[in-house]
Amino acid sequence: MTEYEYIINSTSLKERYDRICAIIRALEDQQIAVISNSDVESYTLDDGQTRINTTYRSALDISKAIDAYEKIKNRIQGELLGTRIVALRDAKTVQSNERYN
């Protein structure tokens, strides 16, 4: 089974979120192995029902995959929590604006 099939076969948004989180954890473990020069090029994720075996070429490929999954995960998390927009401001901006004092 591929990562795509594993995610798409989820039956709810929460399950899809959980599956993406599991893939991210497996990719992070893989990235640590690659960085530590253990010559590992693939990872396996087995959740008891499904087994995924995926091969990546380099630590950069793994990093790109993690970033892509994080974006999807954050979007799904926003849907689950009902939050879509986050405004990040530094302390100086907040203090200089009278509306926030």
Brief characterization of the structure:
By secondary structure, this protein is mainly alpha-helical. Helices cover 57% and strands 10% of the residues. It contains 4 helices and 2 strands.
Walk me through what this model shows.
This protein has 101 residues and is mainly α. It has one domain. The protein is 57% helix and 10% strand. It is built from four helices and two strands; from the N terminus they run H-H-E-E-H-H. Helix 2 packs antiparallel against helix 3 (59-81). The longest helix has 23 residues, at 13-35.
What are the SSEs and their pairings?
Layout: H1 3-8, H2 13-35, E1 42-46, E2 51-55, H3 59-81, H4 91-96
Antiparallel strand pairs: 1-2
Helix pairs in contact: 2-3
Task: Jot down its keywords.
101 residues, mainly alpha, two-stranded antiparallel ribbon, 2 strands, 10% strand
Tell me the quaternary state.
single chain
Q: What is the total domain count?
A: 1
Structural class, please? mainly alpha
Beta strand count: 2
Give the overall form: flat
Residue runs with pLDDT of under 50 for 5 or more positions: none
- What proportion of the residues is helical, as a percent range? 55-70%
**End-to-end gap:** 54 Å
Number of helices: 4
Residue fraction in strands: 5-15%
Radius of gyration from CA coordinates? 18 Å
